[in-house]
Design brief:
Elements lengths: L3 H8 L12 H15 L1 H9 L3 H8 L4 H15 L5 H6 L3 H7 L5 H15 L3 H9 L3 H10 L2 H17 L3 H7 L3 H14 L2 H14 L5 H9 L3 H10 L2 H14 L4 H9 L3 H10 L2 H15 L3 H9 L3 H10 L2 H14 L5 H6 L1 H6 L3 H10 L2 H15 L2 H9 L3 H8 L4 H14 L16 H25 L1 H4 L24
């Protein structure tokens, strides 16, 4: 337990207004700081002894040593969530910000560390820290501090960004994004599992759709490759947060779509959509949806990576949010801009197992998913080598049923697909009747070709109704970071 004499010395600070050096409280705080750094339970004892108020008061004293000792001890106390509110209520934020301007690097480190803990898990505290003007001095520490100082500044800025989304604009204005991302990227590569999770969470939140400049900065400093590596070497939470970040930075960015695809993200995202947790599947579909949106090459690459079977599973059994993301993904896989790519890659898609899940959607999906599946079947059926396989998988009856629905677009999709499927296939179609002369056969085939092409063109023109719809909102909910980095977390 805490030495009663030390507690008494700290409590004496309250009677010194303002405290002046030299004073016993500063020495007592130094002893407490050392004890707190060696024994985590001591921080709880210090707080329970009523020391929070006197320590905050010591932050405003004229004793530089007293300020440093008080900040270090408070960081240890703030590590314990139960005491965060009492530290804030005692007025710690303002003097901690002043301490960021100290000439002492140690003082800056302890101040940044304490602010990070105060912001963690509490949006009101994060907002108060931002409104008090923390972004600029924390950014200065991030750029010019010691390695430890940069780490704590990154933690504080990242935690604020997680819990107070409005901070994104301030981060960008202060020039914090690139050095912050660089620090987080280093954690993704060299940090502990907790470091990686926290860095991934922070990158996901600062890349939200309200901060396009942040998304550009994340890609510009080389963060994409270590983010993708989290799929092979990170925890399940790391994988989920990696998907969040990749989904955010590819939103409406062809440059980032290409970079993420080149980094090899498609296969692990498909694996996460197949085998991840409910949340992991949802975020994988979110990332894949933004990766393929209006990008035909990526759409086909994702389908070839085996996305359709787990996508069907998500559409049928996923959470409501998961189903929403899956619909967005399927919509872009079936988009008219991808039609020619799907046709030219039909054999590879069939080899990747695309036909069976598409036919399954034709039979049992929602009306919208049936229509989108019909468009993909149409595109694939233009390749003669896969027509027989599509027909054998049972596509004809559900396509015929879709012809009778009330949706003109679905009718045309089904009709055009049937026109192709009913042609002779290269894999075993019957030969022409012998009594039909060559001229008549040529005319018949030409007429069928013309009718099929006309129907296909009409169908592809009708997808304007889909294109005119706004994409599903890509709003990112703030996600909880781990409250510390290993090796620098404790008091």
């Amino acid at each position: 337990m805490l030495d009663a004499a030390l507690t008494a010395a700290l409590l004496a600070v309250a009677n010194e207004n303002p405290p002046s050096p030299p004073n016993p409280a500063a020495k007592a705080a130094g002893v407490l700081a050392n004890l707190a750094s060696e024994h985590d339970d001591t921080c709880v004892d210090i707080a329970e002894a009523g020391a929070v108020g006197p320590l905050v008061a010591l932050l405003g004293s004229e004793s530089e040593d007293g300020k440093v000792h008080a900040a270090r001890t408070l960081s240890g106390i703030a590590f314990h969530d139960d005491y965060v509110e009492s530290i804030v209520e005692a007025g710690a934020i303002a003097p901690l910000l002043e301490l960021l301007g100290s000439e002492s690097q140690e003082a800056k480190e302890d101040a940044a560390k304490t602010l990070a803990f105060l912001a963690a898990g509490d949006s009101e505290n994060a907002a108060a820290i931002v409104e008090a003007g923390a972004i600029v001095p924390l950014t200065a520490l991030l750029v010019n501090g010691t390695e430890a100082g940069k780490g704590f500044a990154a933690k504080a800025l990242g935690t604020v960004a997680v819990h107070h989304s409005a901070a994104n604009a301030s981060l960008a204005a202060a020039g914090a994004i690139e050095p912050l991302v660089a620090q987080l990227t280093a954690r993704l590569t060299d940090g502990s599992e907790t470091d990686k999770e926290w860095a991934a969470v922070t990158l996901g939140n600062i890349s939200s759709d309200s901060a396009v400049a942040n998304e550009v900065a994340i890609a510009a400093v080389g963060a994409i490759t270590p983010i993708v590596r989290l799929f092979s070497g990170g925890s399940e939470k790391c994988k989920e947060e990696a998907a969040v970040t990749l989904g955010n930075i590819t939103y409406r960015s062809r440059t980032n779509q290409a970079a993420v695809a080149a980094a090899g993200a498609m296969a692990p995202l498909v694996a996460l959509m197949s085998d991840g947790s409910e949340v992991g599947k949802e975020w994988a579909a979110f990332a894949l949806g933004n990766l393929v949106a209006d990008n035909a090459a990526n759409a086909v690459a994702v389908a070839k990576a085996g996305a359709l079977p787990p996508l069907v599973g998500l559409l049928e059994d996923g959470s409501e949010d998961g189903k929403k993301e899956a619909k967005f993904l399927l919509r872009h896989l079936a988009d008219d801009s991808a039609a020619s790519e799907v046709t030219s890659n039909a054999v590879a898609l069939a080899d990747a197992g695309a036909i069976s899940p598409l036919v399954h959607l034709l039979k049992s999906g929602s009306h919208l998913t049936k229509k989108q599946a019909a468009k993909m079947v149409l595109s694939m059926s233009k390749e003669p080598a896969v027509r027989l396989e599509v027909a054998r998988a049972g596509a004809l009856p559900p396509l015929q049923a879709l012809q009778r629905c009330d949706d003109d677009g679905a009718q045309r999709a089904a009709s055009a697909a049937l026109l192709y499927l009913k042609r002779k296939t290269t894999s075993g179609g019957a030969s022409a009747a012998p009594e039909e002369d060559a001229t008549a056969k040529q005319r018949r085939l030409a007429a069928a070709e013309e009718a099929a092409e006309a129907a296909a063109k009409e169908l592809l023109a009708l997808v304007d109704e889909e294109k005119s719809k706004a994409p599903f909102p890509r709003t990112l909910h703030n996600r909880e970071p781990a409250c510390h980095w290993a090796g620098s977390a404790g008091p």
